[in-house]
Amino acid sequence: MTDPEDLVERVREGEIRLHELEDHTDADTAAAARRLLIERETDTDLETIGDYTFPAEAAEPNIENMIGAAQIPMGVVGPVAVDGGAADGEHYLPLATTEGALLASVNRGLSVIDTAGGADARVTKNGMTRAPVFRVAGVAEAAETVEWVTDNFETLLEAAESTTSHGELIDIEPYVVGDSVYLRFAYDTKDAMGMNMATIATGEACEIVESETPASLVALSGNLCSDKKPAAINAVEGRGRSVTADVLIPGELVEQRLHTTADAIAEANTRKNLTGSAKAGSLGFNAHAANVVAAAFLATGQDEAQVVEAANTITTMDAREREDGTTDLYASVSLASLEVGTVGGGTKLPTQAEALEVLGLRGGGEPAGSNADALAEIIAVGALAGELSLLAALASRHLASAHEDLGR
């Protein structure tokens, strides 16, 4: 182990670079030296940033130039009964956020859902995408390339799957724009979120495309994937897991617990989430689904930037009249692009691994992919609860007072 003071001096003298510290000492000492340097260069105290509980070595696959950890308050909501294709039974959902009143609101929604008998949830589509872009001379070569790809799917499947023991190539959808050919590869990545898996597999397949067609690869990602950006293709075709959750809440329960009516919530949803979102040109037709998704992503080690795609959520609320004349509330959320995993990436960090254990979903599932499916379903139910609670607060005009009561 090298003294952090010595390492700081060596960096200042140009003997070693800041990102090379781990080559000269262990990960924790490297982080301490880097922190010490930044404290002196910026005249700051990084004591709290440096007060983390996991070994820095555990974070080496997830961060470069580490100086410590950002601590975000984590809470839990639930339990709620989820009847899913993979999730089953009562579940707590850990959420990490700095937004006051969020967990209280989601917890209120989950309590109502649970009292109504729980929510149903299903993953309806699964496919992590990567879409390389190729250059051709013109439309004739584009058509030749597309025809070859269509006729030789099995060849490309073999090449792509040779790079992974888990991923399965599901589909290749071609798109032609002038002298550009885009191939949108879609994979079942099982319990991994799978972005790296899809990238590596697609790179192998692209070598075959280049050798057998006139097309030349320009970029392994041509933005038709589309990763970490608002994109209509993800809202329509989906990316990662497409998941829907719904619940039917008796009218009397709406009135007793949410202090409004099914008709009022349905109207608020139509005028706000549907008409208002359409007028705004939004890709998401929801109240704040991204709030719950982001908090769940931070808690469970997902790629937080992919909350952009998760915001492509459609919320529906419908007042359904019963034979006795009372009106119940049907509520649902449909998330077209929820990119989650229970293995790999940030899920291996100690804090996030513990959060997944709370859900009973740490690591790979049996069968493969079932844990990630269950996580998607539970997060969808959490998003449904958030939508229900916020729309009820708006319909009853309690939103501002709720924030005031919680001191926000």
Automatic annotation (TrEMBL):
Documented EC number(s): 1.1.1.34
One Gene Ontology MF term: hydroxymethylglutaryl-CoA reductase (NADPH) activity
First-tier enzyme category under EC: oxidoreductase
UniProtKB keywords: NADP, Oxidoreductase
Pathway involvement of the protein, from the record: Metabolic intermediate biosynthesis; (R)-mevalonate biosynthesis; (R)-mevalonate from acetyl-CoA: step 3/3
Keyword check for Metal-binding: no
Cited Pfam families: HMG-CoA_red
Biological processes per GO annotation: coenzyme A metabolic process; isoprenoid biosynthetic process; sterol biosynthetic process
Catalytic activity field: (R)-mevalonate + 2 NADP(+) + CoA = (3S)-3-hydroxy-3-methylglutaryl-CoA + 2 NADPH + 2 H(+)
Domain of life: Archaea
Classification via Gene3D superfamilies: 3-hydroxy-3-methylglutaryl-coenzyme A Reductase, Chain A, domain 2, Hydroxymethylglutaryl-CoA reductase, class I/II, NAD/NADP-binding domain
Protein family: Belongs to the HMG-CoA reductase family.
Name of this protein: 3-hydroxy-3-methylglutaryl coenzyme A reductase
Organism: Natronorubrum sulfidifaciens JCM 14089
